[in-house]
């Protein structure tokens, strides 16, 4: 496949005072009162400044919302066609009752109880080329929104699992367009600001993203002022993005120009749909005339031997929406997981994406990948770190893609196993507790399938 070259415009000591002595206790008292008054005034001034800054931020956000008001248009999904030949998954096996640690680790429960409690619609476990465990909610109690029946042929929406697919496509695009093979090759590309690739971010008043290195975007540490969830349920950035971009009112890059401000301090983790959208836009621009959806279809989707078409939501310019809006069968999600498990190789061992990419994207680097405890994304009962749109287990080598309704592509490198789960959690209702139950269930499943010869 011939690709156009990556586009973009290169960027091209203290003042000492003499000591003095207090003459009396009255002097000390008066001096203390003066200092306290000065400190109080300084604190009040600082508080007022913070209030003013917050008020301006809320006002600007409100103005952005009002300027984007309007009726939502229809959405558009681009088909991702399957190759002519699909890769077979291992034969299905039955291995008896599986029990997992439940109820805060105080008991063990059967997997059937987990399926009900976690509202699981589909569960698929694949180990190497050998074994497959597969379970569906055939009563269709859960995941009823599309009126389709749960099963192997159904295209399931995966919400933010799409972010992990976007991350992998970014690595693939860098490898293809810039010839990256080593860690150093990838890191050189990741240090560049996204404005080098996406010229639309650099108009007269540029988006804050124009100067953000791609590495920070992929780690959700862009520093761009963004509030995913809003204030008290109002002015949610994710909802605004959906109304304007998902519903074909604006392109991703045009929407990003609504956000011209970055934090003045060192950026920390801030969960952001817009970061993921910018990552997909950057990969799309790298590819020249080849759209990211087509690149997925002829690249990764063909390489994994997908059994079915998939679909991906696009903006009004036809750019894939990086944070969401992807649908596929659980079998094809498992095939994608196996590609990641094999560190970029297909089932025959052919390299599709260099291994070095996965050393960067999916390996825990310690504190630099930590999620602050105050973050809404932090789960105190099962702390995770965050890589390149992958959630990293701090207790092991496994990592996972996670969607807000309980969708997972969970990779266990030490066991050569992939777990795909589709659930119906109603936008993370009780999600932290269910996530802990899910991880315990996944560990039990992996342990059971690993004991097989």
**Gap from first CA to last CA:** 41 Å
Order of adjacent strands in the largest pleated sheet: 5-4-13-12-11-10-9
- What oligomeric state do these chains adopt? single chain
What form results from the Cα inertia axes? globular
**Can you tell me the residue ranges where pLDDT is under 50 for at least 5 consecutive residues?**
1-59
Determine the structural class based on helices, strands and strand pairing: alpha+beta
Mean pLDDT score, rounded? 87
Topology:
Elements: H1 25-67, E1 76-80, E2 99-102, E3 107-110, H2 111-117, E4 120-127, E5 131-136, E6 156-157, H3 161-178, H4 183-190, H5 214-218, H6 237-246, H7 252-256, H8 273-286, H9 292-298, H10 300-303, E7 310-314, E8 326-328, H11 330-341, H12 355-361, E9 384-386, E10 391-393, E11 399-403, E12 407-412, E13 417-423, H13 431-450
Helix pairs in contact: 3-8
Question: How would you portray this structure in words?
Answer:
This protein is an alpha+beta fold and 453 residues long. It contains 13 helices and 13 strands. It has helices at residues 25-67, 111-117, 161-178, 183-190, 214-218, 237-246, 252-256, 273-286, 292-298, 300-303, 330-341, 355-361, 431-450, and strands at 76-80, 99-102, 107-110, 120-127, 131-136, 156-157, 310-314, 326-328, 384-386, 391-393, 399-403, 407-412, 417-423. Strands 5-4-13-12-11-10-9 form a seven-stranded antiparallel sheet, sandwiched between helices. Strands 1-7-8-6 form a four-stranded antiparallel sheet. Strand 11 (399-403) and strand 12 form a beta hairpin. Helix 3 (161-178) runs parallel beside helix 8 (273-286). Residues 1-59 have low confidence and may be disordered.
